[in-house]
Amino acid sequence: MSETPQKQSRLAQALLVVGGLLALMWALEGLDTVTANALDNFGIEPRQLSDLPNILWAPLLHFGWPHLISNSIPFLVLGVITYLSGPVKWLVTTVISAIFSGLAAWLLSPIGTITAGVSGVIFGYLTYLLVRGIFSRKIGQILISLVVFVLYGSVLLGVLPGTPGVSWLAHLGGAVGGVIAAWLLHNRSRDARPQQMAY
Predict the structure, then answer these.
(1) Which of 111, 124, 110, 89 has the alpha carbon at shortest distance from 161?
(2) In-domain check, residue 193
(3) Per-10-residue mean pLDDT for the chain, 199 residues long?
(4) Where are the alpha helices (DSSP H) in the chain?
(5) 186-192 contacts: CB < 8 A, separation 24 or more?
(6) What is the per-residue pLDDT for 1?
(7) Is position 67 within any domain?
(8) Cα(88)–Cα(41) distance, integer angstroms
(9) Which of 57, 62, 162, 199 has the smallest set of CB atoms within 10 Å of its CB?
(10) Is residue 196, in this structure, part of any structural domain at all?
């Protein structure tokens, strides 16, 4: 009986943390608007050593309101679902996805481009949720992955080149980061198996 209040508390915490991060993105976009897009300079420029630290905050920045609006609902929904796995798992998945997304953009994007936006992290959440059940072998997580795939599976097409002005490389890097996070956090099956000993 005590699980229901605990789950409600975790959901409230997830909405507060993920929603708060989203509110920060909106505030930064407002600041970017009134400063004539000055924050866009803190995106990731490929192969510029001085831009490597930008990998950490480029996910918080967007190129205009339409860009931010299109990312807001997927970030909130997938971020909250990921957070319900636990705050530490959410944090690890967020950081790994952001780093892999940013490194992919920094290493592989064409010179003369600049990358920003939270979509790489969104792809990380998506792949984390899709594959964690495979590593953990938990039926509940597998069922959640099926629901997530039905709702957001078509988004995975964003890891393919095609749409001008969209960094598919950052999407792909974030997706790889999500798989790595799921493997690191949920691959306990080998450790849990009883060791076979002959006698």
Answers:
(1) 110
(2) no
(3) 69 96 98 96 93 95 94 94 95 98 94 93 93 83 80 66 75 94 80 48
(4) 3-34, 54-57, 65-83, 87-108, 119-136, 139-152, 168-186, 189-192
(5) 186/132, 186/135, 186/136, 186/141, 187/135, 187/136, 188/135, 188/136, 189/135, 189/136, 189/137
(6) 43
(7) yes
(8) 31
(9) 199
(10) no
Burial of 122 (C-beta count, 10 Å sphere; 0-12/13-18/19+): buried
- Start-to-end Cα distance in the chain: 47
Instruction: Assess contact for 97 and 123: CB atoms under 8 A.
Output: yes
pLDDT for 154: 66
Cβ–Cβ under 8 Å, residues 146 and 199: no
* Domains of the chain: total: 1
Asked if the structure places residue 121 within a domain, the reply is yes
pLDDT of residue 148: 79
Amino acid letter, 67: H
Written as one letter, the residue type at 180 is: I
User: Cα–Cα–Cα angle for 58, 61, 63, nearest 5°?
Assistant: 120
Torsion angles phi and psi, residue 196, rounded to 5: -85, 130
Per-residue tokens: 180: 């790595």
Q: Given this model, what pLDDT does residue 174 score?
A: 95
C-alpha distances (whole Å) from 17 to each of 24, 45, 72, 99, 179 are 11, 29, 14, 20, 22
Task: Give bridge partners of residue 44 from the DSSP assignment.
Answer: 115
